[in-house]
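Thread: quick sanity check before group meeting

JM: Hey all, I'm pulling together slides for Thursday and realized we never actually wrote out the predicted structure for the chain we discussed last week. Dropping the sequence here so it's in one place. If anyone has concerns about the input, flag it before I start.
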Amino acid sequence: MLSLICTTGLGPALAPKLLLQFINHGGNILLTLGNVYPIPSAISSLLLELDIHLPPDRTTVVVDHMNHDTLSSSDQHDVLLMPQPSITRRDVRSFFGGDGVIAFPRAVAQALGNHGQLLTRILQAKGTAYTYNTKEEADVVENPFAVGEQITLVSAMQARNSARLTVFGSVEALEDSWFDREVRAFDGPALKTANRDFAKQVSGWTFHEIGVLKVGRVEHQLSTVGHPESSNGNLFQPELLNPTIYRIKNDVTFQLEISEYYFDHFAPLILSDTDAIQLETTMLTPFYRLNLLPAFQTQNSTFFSSAFKLPDQHGIFRFQVNYKRPFLTNVDVKREVTVRHFAHDEWPRSWQISAGNLALV
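JM (edit): ok, ran it. Output follows.
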């Protein structure tokens, strides 16, 4: 965790290149920002590499005259009151939701670029917010850095190796004094903040305590017809698992076990109705792309399965599952098999001659 509250430089050991190497090797970073001390240029350079932009005036804060705490910032209006974030896409898991209110004192604004494909916004400001440089003390703000929903307060980046970086816009929001603190909105009743729960959610996601998928057994074999089910619903026969050679037009069943880690235990992965894990059968290009359906569950995992007929094409095929969703670690499973032609004794026998041919003889 990098907390920028009492330093103007990080030294040569925390240069942007080294921090990126740390992420590339699977490391996770929770970066907290504050306007009390200037943000080091090394951090600004690191975030620019990821297409996250910070205000050029490093003492700029986010102000909202309509959504602030009237008890602690009745004059400056720089303690934002934000509801816990909700997910608008139905196929995205919500790890940061809730019914509480989050207090964001003196937040540093972030603006996400258009080229950061791995960036995800966790929490954004409301439409009445804008950035304000406290040193200017101007009555009218011209050309603010960002306004309204352009302002991101908490952003996240998950690399292709599932390493995570979270940029938290207010280090003060993580202080004990703001956990369960009483706040009052402009036209609302007094409430207790949900900063403690939100901090646990954000830190848990950043350091792989939630949103982590684990692949267990990966199995494929010829489809068995009429084989009695075992006690856990598995139709696979251990002695016939994962053959290296199939024949064209064989009926094959593919099965994948996935668990999801939640703070201190593994649980079965539950997909929404609008989401699906897909299996590709490829040889250079996909021949099939099939949904893997939940077959059965154990106490700690879900088994997804699909049955299909191999194409009428011989060669080296790959069974591949490439499942990538926001806030979940990536699943990339590949298995190669050989698909052969019919053997000479597998074709229909030549003595199966029709009655018409016998009449000609």
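AS: nice. Residues 195-206 form the longest helix (12 residues). Residues 225-232 have pLDDT under 50 and may be disordered.
JM: adding both to the slides.
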